[in-house]
Amino acid sequence: MLPEELNLSLRRYKNKVFIYAWEYFTKRIHEELLRSVLEESQFFYVEIYFNNIQQELTIRNDRAKFWDTFFEMLSMQKRHSDLCGFLKNNEGIALLFVNSVSNTKESNPAWNRFCNEIKAKTSFDMQQWNGIVYAEYPPKEFFLN
């Protein structure tokens, strides 16, 4: 089940941000895997679990502020090639930064820019949070379908 704060923010940004359902997101990741192999391009994958956000931001108003800023940043992304989707059982949200020049969390410009913008607007430093999953390629479960 999605957190209440997330639902409120999603309603505000429903016409500006598209988030794939898990089933469709896995298909888009498979497509990106194929494209990345054929074109020898990299992509960077991030999973953010809702329970991690609740551990990092224990105050409800902080979570609401985070989600509003998170979706604001997604709606303002200029790359128009990045993907966002829910994780299995709606346990979290994932981002896929395509055509990335680096696949490490420390040096990925798209991820760093995204996190820095959120930090500038909220003072929440996502890059310091425990439990965020980073991968050059998606977890093995994507290959099982």
Q: What does this 3D model show about the protein?
A:
The protein is an alpha+beta fold. The chain has a single domain (4-143), classed as Alpha-Beta Plaits. Helix content is 45%, strand content 17%. It is built from five helices and four strands, in the order ααβααββαβ. A four-stranded antiparallel β-sheet has the order 2-3-1-4, with helices on both faces. A hairpin with a 5-residue loop joins β2 (83-86) and β3 (92-100). α1 (4-12) runs parallel beside α4 and α4 (60-76) crosses α5. It is globular.
Element-level helix/strand string: HHEHHEEHE
CATH class: Alpha Beta
How are the strands of the largest sheet arranged?
2-3-1-4
Classify the fold: give the CATH topology. Answer: Alpha-Beta Plaits
Q: Which term fits the overall shape? A: globular
Low-confidence runs of at least 5 consecutive residues: none
Q: For the residues shown, what is the average pLDDT?
A: 83
Total strand count, please?
Answer: 4
Secondary structure category? alpha+beta
Number of domains: 1
List keywords for this structure.
alpha+beta; 4 strands; 5 helices; 145 residues; globular
Concise synopsis of the structure shown:
45% of the residues lie in helices and 17% in strands. With 145 residues, it is an alpha+beta fold.
